Amino acid sequence: MEESPHIRFLRLLKEDRRYKVDAYQFVREALNFAQEELGMGGEPDEEERHLTGQELCEGIRIFAIRQFGYMAKLVLNSWGVFSTSDFGNLVYNLIEIEMMKKSEQDRREHFDDVFDFDEAFVQDFEMTLE
After folding, report:
1. 57 CB-near residues (< 8 Å, 6+ apart)
2. What is the per-residue pLDDT for 2?
3. What is the average pLDDT across 63-90?
């Protein structure tokens, strides 16, 4: 009998304790945001829309800032996420348990050093008054 996605996910959390469950949920939500809100990964009517590692990192960055504002880096860090390499680890863990997909061209290292967290979430952050 094949394991359910829920059981595979629980096993992943037990085996790889680097990241909190919130980090995985956030990456999945950020993928959806990047595809639906930012239009990344192809046309909306395509059956299989795909983002590169670099595109997904950028989508995650924008989503984090929209969700958490100037607290984005702190929130991500609290989940065990300190660099874009961690995004890659999260994505590839989800791929391994079949909760995300990859293309033949995708590589785990495509997530390495996409941007610096301090620059992306601290130095580049601008507060505006509305």
Report:
1. 84, 87, 111, 114, 115
2. 79
3. 96
Which candidate, 129, 88, 86, 90, places its Cα nearest to that of 110? Answer: 88
**Rounded to whole angstroms, how far apart are CA atoms 66 and 47?**
27
Question: What does each C-alpha distance from 54 to 16, 19, 23, 70, 94 come to in angstroms?
Answer: 23, 20, 18, 22, 17
Give the phi and the psi of residue 127 in degrees, each rounded to 5: -95, 135
Q: Which of 5, 3, 20, 4 is nearest to 90 (CA)?
A: 20
Q: How far apart are CA 19 and CA 78, in angstroms?
A: 9
Sorted by where each begins, the domain ranges of the chain are: 5-123
Q: Distance between CA atoms of 129 and 70, rounded to whole angstroms?
A: 14
pLDDT digits (tens, 9 = 90+) for 18-69: 999 999 999 999 999 999 988 887 665 555 668 999 999 999 999 999 999 9
| Residues 6+ positions from 114 with CB-CB distance below 8 Å | 53, 54, 57, 58, 84, 87
| H helix runs in the chain, sequence order | 5-15, 21-36, 53-68, 72-78, 84-96, 117-118
